[in-house]
Specification:
Layout lengths: L2 H33 L15 H11 L2 H8 L10 H6 L3 H29 L5
Helix pairs in contact: 1-2, 1-5, 2-5
Length: about 120
C-alpha cells in the first residue's frame, strides 16, 4: 500500500471514531442541555440538524479566551455560550467534547492536507 492510501485510511478511521463520539456526545450531553431551560437558548444557531452539537463541543473544547472573542463579534448568536455551558456540564462532558472536537477537526484538517499534498505532487 502506498503512503498516501495509508495516511488517508488513518484519517478516515479517526473521522469514523469522531463521528461515533458525535452521536454519543449528542445523546449524553446536548440532549440534556436542550431540555434545560437555562441552556436551551444558549446552544448557538442550528444551521442544520445536529449543528448545535458541534457548537456545544466547540464551546467546551476551545480555550476560554477564544470563546469570549467569538462572543463579541457580530455573529455571536451563531456560537454557543461557553460560560453558561460550563455551569451546566461536568468534567466528563467537557472531556468528551474535547476528545470529539479535536478528533473531528484533526481528521478534517488531515484530509485537507493530504489533498493539497497530492495536488502539488508530493506523493508521486
Amino acid at each position: 500500500m502506498s503512503t498516501k492510501i495509508t495516511l488517508f485510511a488513518i484519517c478516515l478511521l479517526v473521522l469514523f471514531i469522531s463521528l461515533t463520539l458525535f452521536v454519543i456526545f449528542g445523546q449524553i450531553t446536548v440532549r440534556r442541555l436542550r431540555k434545560n431551560p437555562a441552556t436551551k437558548n444558549e446552544l448557538g444557531l442550528e444551521l442544520m440538524s445536529g449543528w448545535d452539537i458541534l457548537n456545544v463541543a466547540g464551546a467546551l473544547a476551545l480555550p476560554r479566551w477564544l470563546n469570549r472573542k467569538l462572543r463579541n463579534t457580530p455573529l455571536s448568536s451563531m456560537y454557543a455560550n461557553a460560560d453558561v455551558l460550563d455551569k451546566h456540564t461536568n468534567l466528563f462532558d467537557r472531556a468528551l467534547a474535547t476528545v470529539f472536537y479535536v478528533l473531528w477537526v484533526g481528521s478534517i484538517v488531515g484530509i485537507l492536507i493530504l489533498v493539497v499534498l497530492d495536488k502539488i505532487g508530493i506523493f508521486n
